[in-house]
Structures are given as C-alpha cells and as structure tokens.
C-alpha cells in the first residue's frame, strides 16, 4: 500500500485496507463492478453480508476497501455532493468530477487519513471510466482495476480473461471468476459475490440467482 507510513498509518491500521477484493472493468458499453461480501476484524469474520459496492448516481458507482465507518462516510459525502451538483448545474456530475472531488477530500485529510481505498466508476458522455483513489488522495484512471488483499489473485484472472473493448455482457463472467478465485486463496475475501453494472440504462445490481448463472 502506497504512502502508508509517511502518512502516519501504522501496521495496526493498515490491516483495515487489506481485507477484501473488489474489481472494476471498463467496457465499450458500460462498466462492471464486483466485490465479495466478507468483513473481517482480525481473525474474526465480522459479517458475511457486508456491502462493498454502492450506487452514487444513476451513472456512477463505487467499490470500497478499508474501515467500515470511513468508507460509509465517504459514500454518504459523495452522494450528497452529487445531488447538490445536480441541483446547482441542472445536470448529473461526471465520473471524473466525482472522483476528483473525492480525491480532494482524501488529500485534505491525508495527515489524519480516511482508511479507504476506492474505485469510482461510471458511464457518461465521456464513455466508461474507472478511477483508483488511494488514501492520500492520489488518483489514477484505469481500464481494469482491483483493490484489497485478494487483488493479486483477481488480477491473475483478469489479465487472462478481460480484454479492452469487450462488452459488459462478455466481461461479467471474468469479473465473477476474479472474485471467486480470490475467495479460494485469500482468507479475508469470501462468502458471496456482489455484482453491478452501469450502462446507458443506468445502475443495476444482480441477484444471487443471476450471478450463479453468470458464473456457470
């Protein structure tokens, strides 16, 4: 994890950034977001149904890794700011603007940081976009991204199975397999898969029955 020690984050706090696996894929017709649902507290499985993917607007979603309170607070802030932007401008906030706003918040607190790594993804007039945000406010744009302790395993699947320019439909199995494979090798990743897409039709989450069909 980058910049942790220079920002005053010790090993005890670092563990909150490591447990989980989330994935985001930028496709030609939208974005795919996938996560597991396990929340850990040391060696304890604190929750088997933890939410790690969130709808921000009709065209933007976010996946989170880190402390529960910190990540939930950032989700609430971004949702409120997105609504305010829409009221003020008469148009929805763009994906890059939402990511930059969140990065600014993270950077402002970088010496007493939010324990959070984020993937902010959306589909707007600029197409499919994914931004990785580190806890110090650094931001990079990606076509394929994964965060959390299971991300090295997930990347191994995605590098082989995901291709830039793929459709959302074609990318769904790769996202699900990436999370399921991480579950087999990372003890902090587990229980169920959550899956969402954002296309021209807006934000959609899949049921467990639909995810099982995709995995098959």
Give a structural overview:
The chain is an alpha+beta fold and about 220 residues long. It contains 6 helices and 12 strands. Helix 4 runs antiparallel to helix 5 (about 170-185). It has one domain: Aminohydrolase, N-terminal nucleophile (Ntn) domain (Glutamine Phosphoribosylpyrophosphate, subunit 1, domain 1, 4-Layer Sandwich).
Which bin fits the share of residues in helices? 25-40%
CATH topology descriptor: Glutamine Phosphoribosylpyrophosphate, subunit 1, domain 1
Strand content: 25-35%
CATH superfamily: Aminohydrolase, N-terminal nucleophile (Ntn) domain
**Total domain units:** 1
- CATH architecture, please? 4-Layer Sandwich
List segments where confidence is low: pLDDT < 50 over at least 5 consecutive residues: 1-9, 11-17
| Structural classification | alpha+beta
Task: Figure out the total of helices.
Answer: 6
Distance between the termini: 34 Å
* Spatial sequence of strands, sheet with the most strands: 10-1-2-11-12
What series of H and E elements makes up the topology? HEEEEEEHHEEEEHHEEH
The largest pleated sheet is described as: 5 strands, antiparallel
Mean pLDDT: 92
Task: Give the C-alpha Rg.
Answer: 16 Å
What is the strand and helix layout of this fold?
Elements: H1 11-18, E1 22-27, E2 30-36, E3 39-41, E4 44-47, E5 53-57, E6 60-66, H2 68-89, H3 95-108, E7 116-124, E8 127-133, E9 139-142, E10 144-147, H4 151-161, H5 168-185, E11 193-199, E12 202-205, H6 208-215
Antiparallel strand pairs: 1-2, 1-10, 2-11, 3-4, 5-6, 6-7, 7-8, 8-9, 11-12
Helix pairs in contact: 4-5
């Amino acid at each position: 994890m980058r910049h942790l020690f220079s920002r005053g984050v010790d090993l005890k706090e670092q563990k909150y950034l490591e447990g989980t696996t989330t994935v985001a894929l930028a496709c030609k017709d939208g974005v795919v977001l996938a996560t597991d649902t396990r929340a850990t507290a040391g060696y304890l499985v604190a929750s088997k149904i933890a939410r790690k993917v969130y709808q921000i607007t009709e065209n933007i979603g976010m996946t989170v890794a880190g402390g529960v309170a910190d990540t939930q607070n950032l989700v609430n802030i971004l949702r409120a700011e997105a609504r305010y932007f829409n009221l003020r401008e008469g148009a929805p906030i763009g994906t890059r603007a939402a990511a930059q706003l969140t990065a600014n918040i993270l950077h402002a607190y970088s010496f007493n940081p939010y324990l959070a790594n984020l993937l902010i993804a959306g589909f707007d007039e600029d197409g499919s976009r994914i931004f990785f945000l580190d806890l110090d406010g650094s931001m990079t744009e990606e076509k394929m991204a994964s965060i959390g302790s299971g991300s090295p395993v997930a990347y191994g699947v995605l590098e082989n199975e995901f291709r830039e320019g793929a459709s959302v439909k074609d990318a769904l199995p790769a996202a699900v397999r990436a999370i399921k494979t991480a579950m087999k090798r990372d003890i902090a990743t587990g229980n169920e898969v959550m899956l969402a897409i954002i296309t021209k039709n807006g934000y959609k989450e899949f049921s467990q029955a639909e995810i099982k069909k995709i995995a098959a």
